[in-house]
Specification:
There is one protein chain. The chain is α/β, with parallel strands linked by helices and 381 residues long. It has 3 domains: 260 residues, Purple Acid Phosphatase, chain A, domain 2; 57 residues, no CATH class; 47 residues, no CATH class. Helices cover 32% and strands 22% of the residues. The strands form 5 sheets. The chain has a 6-stranded mixed β-sheet. Strands 7-8-9-12-14-13 form a 6-stranded mixed β-sheet, with no helix packed on it. A 3-stranded parallel β-sheet has the order 17-18-19. A hairpin with a 2-residue loop joins strand 13 and strand 14. 31% of the residues are buried. It binds manganese (II) ion. The site of manganese (II) ion has 7 residues, from loops.
């Protein structure tokens, strides 16, 4: 018996105006399906944030639709999915009941009696599912005003589930939440992580494996496991090792858990240095199509994006130390004094020094004085 755990696909994700749909299509068709052919899992667990937005773009919906159809029809593999905080739960819930007869189990709201999906075997595997939920949803569901925090919400729901748990089975919970003590990334919605959104690991003690989504870095607290997103969705994830998680039950009642690295269509990474250094390095760069973020050091460069796009066609963003004051700090009180003395030229000279890392030239000064004179003529005080 084998189960593949993945999460946080964020289909339809756009970063810096760039749609990642081609990368996501590659992940599903050119990475995941060949992997399914190789390992022949009995079920795929998808722990939420299937789509990036409640109203997902049409290409993203079509991609998921073709994934589900192909998974069931060609590979005869069950899908057990829950909705995450990014998903439009009601939109994903269409036909949910009917799809169960095709072994597509999508849990998008709190309802029913929490019956698990059962995989029969020497030691049966029981898979319980919870959609992304928050305290108001659980208050509504239970008709109780006692539920204040996420911790209260999960405790209440898992208490009901605990009564059903058969300890002879291997019990898995699929959910989408933030477990206290986890490591976050820039591409998760910060609104939903940390603080009152935290749930302590002890709440899940009844389960043998907790297949979580929400955090994009693969990590675990003993048997509470985040598979992480299969692709990088922000530049602070440049050093993440993206993977999917395989649970291989073999003959033993406890699975062997392995992380299988994902080979992406394009990597996402940061390049650093002066524009000359970056362009020079790019000449021998074998992966010029990667998504690039450039941290430019040194004097301010005119139209740096256009220059870098010639070597890195998929460059998405840039920062320049000249603009962010990385290597030059401004003496604000001195500037203020000069401003009050109407000493605009020295303010201009400071400005040039800050962004060009050099003194203003004679022609810079002449140009500035000319602009000042024109202003004075237009708007005599
Ligand atoms: Mn997510």
């Amino acid at each position: 018996m084998r189960i593949l755990h993945t999460s946080d696909w964020h289909l339809g994700k756009i970063i810096y105006g760039q749609s990642l749909i081609e990368d996501q299509r590659y992940f599903i068709n050119d990475f995941l399906f060949p992997l399914i052919d190789e390992y022949l899992p009995d079920a795929i667990i998808l722990s939420g944030d299937i789509f990036d937005r409640q109203i997902a773009p049409v290409e993203a919906i079509r991609l998921f639709d073709s994934f589900v159809t192909r998974l069931i029809k060609e590979h005869n593999t069950r899908l057990i999915a829950v909705t995450g905080n990014h998903d439009g739960a009601d939109r994903l819930g269409i036909g949910m009941q009917l799809l169960r007869s095709s072994e597509v189990y999508i849990t998008s709201r709190l309802e029913g009696d929490f019956a698990p999906v059962v995989l029969e075997g020497k030691r049966p595997i029981h898979i319980y599912s919870l959609p992304y939920l928050d305290p108001p949803a659980v208050r509504d569901y239970l008709g109780s005003d006692e539920i204040k925090s996420f911790e209260d919400a999960y405790k209440a729901v898992l208490n009901i589930m605990a009564e059903k748990i058969d300890k002879k089975a291997y019990n898995i919970l699929v959910a989408h939440l933030f477990v206290a003590g986890s490591v976050t990334s820039d591409s998760e919605s910060s609104l939903f992580v940390g603080g009152s959104g935290e749930v302590s690991p002890g709440v899940f003690k009844e389960f043998d494996y907790v297949a979580l989504g929400h955090l994009h870095r693969a990590q675990n607290h003993s048997n509470i496991c985040y598979s992480g997103s299969p692709l990088k969705y922000s530049f602070d994830e440049e050093n993440h090792k993206k993977s999917v998680t395989l649970l291989d039950f073999g003959e033993s009642p406890e699975p062997v858990i392995t992380q299988i690295p994902v080979k992406p269509l394009r990597d996402m990474r940061v390049v650093r240095g002066s524009i000359e250094e970056i362009v020079k390095k790019a000449e021998t760069d074998k992966n010029k199509d990667d998504y690039i973020f450039a941290r430019l050091e040194g004097p301010l460069v005119f139209e740096p994006m256009a220059k870098l796009r010639k070597v890195y066609p998929n460059i998405l963003g840039i920062t320049q130390t000249g603009l962010t004051g990385g290597e030059y700090s401004l003496d604000r009180s001195a500037l203020k004094e000069k401003f009050h003395q109407n000493n605009y030229l020295s303010i201009f000279e400071e400005f040039i020094k800050q962004i060009c890392f050099d003194k203003a030239t004679e022609s810079d000064v002449a140009l500035f004085n000319q602009a000042l004179e024109e202003l004075a003529r237009e708007d005599p005080q």
